[in-house]
Amino acid sequence: IVVGIYYTCRLLFLDNIRTADFRRTAFLLGVGMGATLLIKYSMSVIFAVPFLFTCYRAWQCRQNLWRLVAWTAAGALAMVLPFVIYFAIIGNLQAFVNEYFLRTFYTIGEIKQGHGDRTNYWDYLPMVTYVAMLTVCSLSAALWLKRFRLFPFLAFLGFLLPHIFYVRLYYFNTCHGFLVFGLLTTYFMVSQRKQWPKVKTALCILVLLATAIPYLYYNAHYTAGYFYHPQRRGHGYQYAEQLLPKHKPTIVYWHCADVGIGLLTEALPYCKYYSQQVGVTPQMVAEQDAEVMKGKADFVIVAKGNAPLHEALRKMGYKLCPEIDNV
């Protein structure tokens, strides 16, 4: 993603560009589109602004727009086609399309319920701070760019669009690259300090210092990854000891999200809905319940304190492992 944006900036801001530069930029943008399509397909919209600016630049330079589109399509196919071939060979292509593209639409109406009722507005502070900081960074590029001055800001808005309704900061990982414009603006303002009032330089430094605010908050409140926080990482190894006696065990997260417990032991999903995503539908819950009740999964992960599920597992003959952390 960052490489695609970098070459788009080269294309827009350099004076001496060649036909090969357009081909390379279009191909890399296509690779980014294909990658985001497979990661989370709503994210593919983030490349709309860079692609449109690339097309406009190509029109300015009298390049063939159809060839540009063809190179972009080639880049996207280079990412997507291997997965299509693989799923077709093993006979799962239709199931992949149905679950990833079609059934996902049914989860949209349930997403609010999955995120919970956020009445504590302090939860929004890291996101609002970070978005405000990136807005200033991307807009500040207009102070020193010679042309396409609003491209960084418009591109940032395009990157922001798929994530604007989310609160947790990790949804905005794709926007991190726009911080570089704030750093370049700082360099520009410091190098031109004779022409700039001190208050503007101080404001730019404060914006850069504000980078730490959302990360410090996030580190204190959302240490969910086992490899992100030392204590949680230790819990991950404790879970691995429970799973190790079984080679590549099957695992299902019953009425909870996948938190990576099986990573260290190469655990395999027991069923299609082996965990519950945000926005899970009643149909998905019912299908997971039916699979779990068969009692064939090697390990069933449930939330700590969920007594009804614990009791149901005992009746099926499962042995309760020592509780670690929150599961």
Structural class by SSE content: mainly alpha
Strand line-up across the major sheet: 2-1-3
Please give the count of helices. 15
Number of strands: 3
The span between the termini is 35 Å
Portion in helices:
55-70%
List the defining traits of the structure above.
15 helices, 3% strand, 3-stranded parallel beta sheet, single chain, globular, 327 residues, mainly alpha
Fold topology:
Elements: H1 2-13, H2 19-39, H3 48-60, H4 65-90, H5 93-102, H6 104-107, H7 111-115, H8 125-140, H9 151-160, H10 179-191, H11 198-209, H12 212-221, H13 230-243, E1 250-253, E2 268-269, H14 282-292, E3 299-301, H15 307-315
Parallel strand pairs: 1-2, 1-3
Helix pairs in contact: 1-2, 1-3, 2-3, 2-4, 3-9, 8-9, 8-10, 8-12, 10-11
Structure characterization notes:
Helix content is 57%, strand content 3%. The protein has 15 helices and three strands. The chain has helices at residues 2-13, 19-39, 48-60, 65-90, 93-102, 104-107, 111-115, 125-140, 151-160, 179-191, 198-209, 212-221, 230-243, 282-292, 307-315; strands at residues 250-253, 268-269, 299-301. Strands 2-1-3 form a three-stranded parallel β-sheet, with no helix packed on it. The mean pLDDT is 80.
